[in-house]
């Protein structure tokens, strides 16, 4: 299953770490330093730098072919827009 996780904080990183062995994971995060950390911590997950409220970022993540999108940013409004 292809899962896109938006938000690379504690919750997003935990989910990616738990799911990456059995699923194709794409993480989207806005903070460059956090993206670098996630890339080294979970190398099997694809990690993108960007704002997932922008359609181009979701398209680059492969939203059209994804099975699930999990929005776990720290901003409820962003999570609603992504959903």
Order of helices and strands: EHEHEHEH
Low-pLDDT windows of residues: none
**What sort of overall outline do the alpha carbons produce when their principal axes are compared?**
globular
| Portion in helices | 25-40%
Structural class: alpha/beta
Distance between the termini: 18 Å
Oligomer: single chain
The radius of gyration over CA amounts to 11 Å
Strand order of the largest sheet: 3-2-1-4
Q: Number of helical runs?
A: 4
Number of strands: 4
Strand content: 15-25%
Largest sheet descriptor: 4 strands, parallel
Name the average pLDDT: 97
Quick description:
The chain has 83 residues and is an alpha/beta fold.
Descriptive report:
The protein starts with a strand and ends with a helix. Strands 3-2-1-4 form a four-stranded parallel sheet. The longest helix has 10 residues, at 10-19. 29% of the residues are buried. 40% of the residues lie in helices and 23% in strands. It is of the alpha/beta class. The chain has helices spanning 10-19, 32-41, 55-60, 76-82, and strands at residues 2-6, 24-29, 46-49, 68-71. It is globular and about 30 Å long.
């Amino acid at each position: 299953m292809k899962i896109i996780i938006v938000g690379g904080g504690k919750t997003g990183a935990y989910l990616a770490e738990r799911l990456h062995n059995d699923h194709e994971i794409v993480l989207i995060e806005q903070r460059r330093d956090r993206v670098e950390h996630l890339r080294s911590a979970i190398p099997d997950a694809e990690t993108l730098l960007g704002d997932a409220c922008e359609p181009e970022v979701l398209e680059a993540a492969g939203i059209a072919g994804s099975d699930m999108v999990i929005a776990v940013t720290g901003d409820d409004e962003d999570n609603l827009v992504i959903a």
